[in-house]
Fold this protein.
Amino acid sequence: MGIPDTPLGQHRSYFILAAAACVCATLFALTVADAPLPGIGAWPLLPIVFFSALFGLPLLVVIKGRLLSQAQTLEGRHLLILLGLAALLTLPPVAIDLTIAFPKHMNVPLPGALLFYFAIALVAEVVFHLIPLAALAITRLARVASPWAYLPAVLAEPAFQAALGAGTTLQGWLVFGNVALISGVQVWLFVRYGFAAMMGLRLAYYLFWHVLWGTLRLPILF
């Protein structure tokens, strides 16, 4: 059975994902020793996730009310497509890593990775996608026909990654392009299928990139 495509159904999927992220953040805080974390450094994960969960809902309401038409139903077959798409999107960064290796300890190791990356996925969606999309909804800029109107929402995360990572090196530009591709696909999924599809792709990508490849790369590259 698909996820209902009514506004209530879309918000329900957000509630479920946000609640799961908060649970993961809580368990991570209780079970993993304090250490700098990818993307947030020494900032505590738990309050960041809880604040994002609370802040994301009104942003989603604004976006749904002013920007988007009613999303299509997300069905079971779409979940398999999301997994396959995430696997394909993992290939470019793996190729970059094999050619110009990223830092050895760039990922949170298992088993904490399963909790951390689910929790941080919600933060990423709120900060990099819902905030820019809500700004577009309020200004009505994205109502124009051109897909270029969504560019700020697409480029927010790759710009952050570029500033956080390798900068203007070859690796930095490759990462920028790869993250922009993933972000663009996510924004398209959000417009077409809603928040669950957008975050679902990120979760699947995190599973392949940060968890599976993050574990395999250590004996291969180091």
About this structure: Helices lie at 7-31, 45-66, 76-99, 112-139, 151-164, 170-193, 195-221.
